[in-house]
Amino acid sequence: MPEQMIRVVIVDDHEVVRVGLKNLIDLQQDLMVVGDYATGQAAIDNVPHHADVVVLDVRLPDLSGFEVCRQIKGQDDHIHIIMLTSFGQDEMVVDAINAGASGYLLKEARGHTVIEGIRTVAQGGSLFSPQVTAPLFQRLRSMHSSSDPVEELTENEKKILELVAQGKTNREIGVDLFLSEKTIKHYVSSILSKLGYTRRSEAAAHFARYQSDRHRNE
Predict the structure, then answer these.
(1) Burial track 148-164 (b if 16+ CB lie within 10 A, e otherwise)
(2) What percent of the chain stands above pLDDT 70?
(3) Is 152 found in the same domain as 122?
(4) Are residues 124 and 151 in the same domain?
(5) Nearest alpha-carbon partner for 7 in 51, 44, 56
């Protein structure tokens, strides 16, 4: 298996979804399915240290997808998880972020969106369906005070945070800003610390809320 191959696991209790996604992924030269499971417990028992990306249904017959996400991340934080579901309620998106998911896509998403989403999160980026971001930002606005810690960031940090919110990886940001990937990694760590987050997806969602508030108040 080539080093650049992205190993993908599919967790969904509907066989037609698993088969459809597997067929789609198998057509890609840089992706391969290394497992598919119909229950959350089977995923918890088999996925850790075995995959790069997990495409995970929110609703499973035995456990919630959020709990499965949390347990998999607890065993191997290097695994990136995309929640793929028919439900886009804002509280579910927040639960996904809190559980450690890097992406949240609706099952109505086109196949190429799912494929690009897998590649994006595998490289350390984040991805959320446009259909779910508006209610998410509304919820985040109600959770934070009017004093925003983004204002305390340096101009370089704000610029990097904006690129993080666009789903770009550290390497891509480094290319855009003519900085090394290691330098960008240090910047991102500083940004997360100042904002009080541990995951870049949380910081990305926060920045989107911050931008939305600024535009609303202009």
Answers:
(1) bebeebeeebbebbbbb
(2) 88
(3) no
(4) no
(5) 51
